[in-house]
Design a protein that fits this description.
The radius of gyration is 22 Å and the shape is flat. About 75% of the residues lie in helices and about 5% in strands. The two termini are about 35 Å apart. It has about 150 residues and is mostly helical. The relative contact order is 0.07. The longest helix is centred in the N-terminal third of the chain and has 39 residues.
């Protein structure tokens, strides 16, 4: 039983290491893409106004998505997953110029993702590890400080 536990811990550590390596590779790719976008701002076509705005927008959205994806690999929270999905959906809608039905579905998807982020995701207190609804603990602490609520028994 103990050896199985050690193997599981080792595999988890290896998986964490691989995720960090992937995040590092993504950061390098994002920095290269950022350098390419910045260099493109100083070309003759850009300065004369003869550039493809959609290409610039696509590059910038790819940078944002890469950064959010890296954050998702490092943090492992539902909030980062929802943010990545929101950015990828927004990028698809803005850059690709889909038809009206696809645009409507994208707007609905982003609305649902915002609703999920606001109402369905519980917060996690870093102090004590308790799961709570966002802002609820803050409200309880404020009331307790005003002596409206009795102190909790520890």
């Amino acid at each position: 039983m103990k050896s199985k536990l050690n193997i599981t811990k080792t595999l988890n550590r290896i998986a964490d290491l691989v995720e960090l390596i992937i995040a590092f590779i993504i950061i390098i790719a994002v920095l290269c893409l950022l350098g390419h976008v910045i260099a493109g701002l100083f070309t003759r076509q850009f300065l004369l106004g003869q550039f493809d705005f959609h290409e610039l927008l696509s590059g910038l959205f790819n940078i944002i998505i890469g950064l959010e994806f890296t954050r998702m690999l490092c943090k492992h929270t539902p909030e980062t997953i929802v943010e990545v999905l929101m950015f990828t959906t927004a990028r698809q809608m803005i850059v690709e110029h889909s038809g009206p039905l696809d645009t409507l579905l994208g707007v609905i998807a982003i609305g649902l993702l915002f609703a999920m982020r606001k109402y369905l995701q519980p917060g996690l207190s870093e102090e004590d590890g308790n799961i709570y609804i966002k802002n609820l603990r803050h409200t309880i602490r404020k009331r307790r400080n005003k002596k409206e609520l009795p102190e909790e028994d520890s």
